[in-house]
Amino acid sequence: MINFADTSQTKDVVIYARVSSDDQQERETIQNQIEFAEKYCELHKMNIVGWYKDDGVTGTIGLDQRDEGNRLLEDAKTGNYKTVLIYNMKRLGRKARVTLDAIYQLEEHGVKIKSMTEPFDTGDPMGRFIITVLAGQAEFDRDTLLDTLWHGANRHARLGKWLGGIVPYGYRVNDERFLEVNEDPLPGKEGMSEADVIRLIYNLIADQKMSTIKVADYLNALKIPPSYVIHGRQIKKGKRKENTAGVWSPGRIRNMIVNTTYMGVHEYGKRATRVRETIIRDVASIVSVETWEMARQVLRDNQIEAFRNQTRFYILRGLIKCGCCGLTYHGGAFKGSKGKPQAYYLCGGKTIYKGPLQGKCYSKNIPCEWIEDLVWKECVRFIQNPGAALKELEQGMILRKSNTADYLQEREMLMKGLKDKEPERQSILSLYRQKMIKATDVEVQLQDILLETTTLERRLKELGSLMEAEKDISYQFDSAELLLNELKAKIQGDPSYETKREVVKTLVQEIIVETIEPLEGGRKKAVVNVRYSFSKAKGVIHTGKDS
C-alpha cells in the first residue's frame, strides 16, 4: 500500500477529472470528483497547481482525443507537473488499452499517476502491476449489459418498435416507440406534411416518369426542407459538426424510392455489417405496394435507357483526373458549331449534383478526339520504337507487381482480422453468461466490434479498387520485352476500342488536367500532364481547344 499521508513536505500535483454522460445518469458528477480531490489534497498536504476536467466525455476514446486530456498531455511535455491525481482508474479510460496507453503517454514525460481511491502508484513495479489488473477490471465493468440488450433489442424489433437511429422522412415515433405516418405541417409549408412529400415524390416518378434529378430540382425549387434541415441535424467533418447544404439530391430521392418502409415493410438489421438475423416487421405505409413497384420500375427503365443512349466509347475513361478539385473526368457530349454532337471529357465536379446553391468546378473540358488521338499516337510511337524508355517500363512493371503483392498481403491480414471478430463477440457474450461483466458494457463492446468490422470491410473494399486499378496485361509477362511484343501484335491493322483501351491502360498511369488563367487575360487554358509507364517525366501538353 502506498502511503499518501507522508506530510514531510508539500507536493505539487494536478488533478484530472472525467465523467461521461452515462456516469452522469448514475448521479456521478464531475463536481463530486473536484470536491473529493480538494479534501484529499488538503488532508495529504498536496498543492493543486492545475485542473483538467473532461465533462461528458466517454472513456472509450484515447486521452489525446479528449479536449482536457490532450491539454494534460501537452502540459506534460513541457514539464509543467510531475504528478497527476485521478479519482480512480476509470477516469483514464473504460477500456484496458485506452487506460494503459494514457499511462504510457504520461510516463514518457516523467509523470507519475496516482489514484485517490485505489492502492497503486505508477512509480514502482508493484503499482504498475496493480494498474494492469485494475485496467482490465475497468473494462469488465463496462462489458456486462450487452447480451441482455442484444436480445432485448431483437424482442422489441419483432414487436415493431423503433429502436433508434434516424427516423425515415415521412414518419415519426410515437410515445409507445412505434413508427407512425407524420401528417404534421412542415415549417413554412402549412399545407404539406412530410408524408405528403413522400407521396409527391412517388407520384412524380411512378406516374409522371420523372428522373431523380428533376424531382430533386423540383423539391428544391419548392423550398421543401429535407430531414436534416427540419430536425437541425449536423454532419461531422473532422472534429467539428457542420450544417448540411440543406438541399435534396438525386441520390436521396433514389434511396427513398427503393426503401421498402414506405410500402409498409421495415427490415431491422439489414445494414448490419456482422452476421445477424434480419427481422421483417410491418409498419404503417405511406404509398401502396403497386405505386412502390411502379416507381422502382421507372428507375430501372431510366437506367437501361441511359445505358442505351451511350453512343460513344471513351478510351481514357477513369484515367483523367482534375487538378482543380481532384475528381475524375468522364465522357459527355455537346452540340458543336454545326449542330452535331461533339464528345468531351469533363470533370465530375461540373456535373455531380450538389444542389442549386453549390458552385461547380471551373475546369476546362477536353475534346475527346484530340486527347485520345494524342495519347494513342504517343503509345504507338513507344511500342514501335521504345529505345531507352524500355527500362522505365520494366521498372514500372516491377513496381506495379510489388504494389499488388503488398495489397494481397494486406488483404490477407484484413480477412484474418474480420474472421477473428466473431470469436471476439462470442467471448464477450460468454463472459456475460458467466456474470463476469455487465450488460451495458456488453453493448459498448459489441458496438466497438461493429465499428472495427465496418472499418476493416471499408478498407477491404478500397484494396479491391486499388488492385483493380493496377490490373493490366503487363501482369501476364515476366519482362517488358515480352509485353512489348504482345502490344505490337495488338496494334496491327485497325484495333478495336477494347484493344486500344487495354493498351492505353497498360501504358498510361494517369492524366492530370490543370486549368489556368492566362496572364494577359482571355479564356482559360487547359494544361494536360500525361504520365506514362515508360517515362519518369510528365508530358506537358498545352491545348488551345475550346470547351
From TrEMBL:
Domain Resolvase/invertase-type recombinase catalytic, chain residue ranges per copy: 12-160
Key word Metal-binding present: no
Alphabetized InterPro entries for the sequence: DNA_bind_recomb_sf, DNA_bind_recombinase_dom, Recombinase_CS, Resolv_N, Resolvase-like_N_sf, SSR_resolvase, Zn_ribbon_recom_dom
Entries under Pfam families matching the protein: Recombinase, Resolvase, Zn_ribbon_recom
Residue ranges of domain Recombinase in the record: 168-305
Alphabetical UniProt keywords: DNA integration, DNA recombination, DNA-binding
Keyword Protein biosynthesis: no
Domain of life where this protein originates: Bacteria
Active-site residues, record numbering mapped to chain: 20
Any GO MF annotation of the entry: DNA strand exchange activity
A GO biological-process term: DNA integration
This protein's name: Recombinase family protein
Organism: Paenibacillus monticola
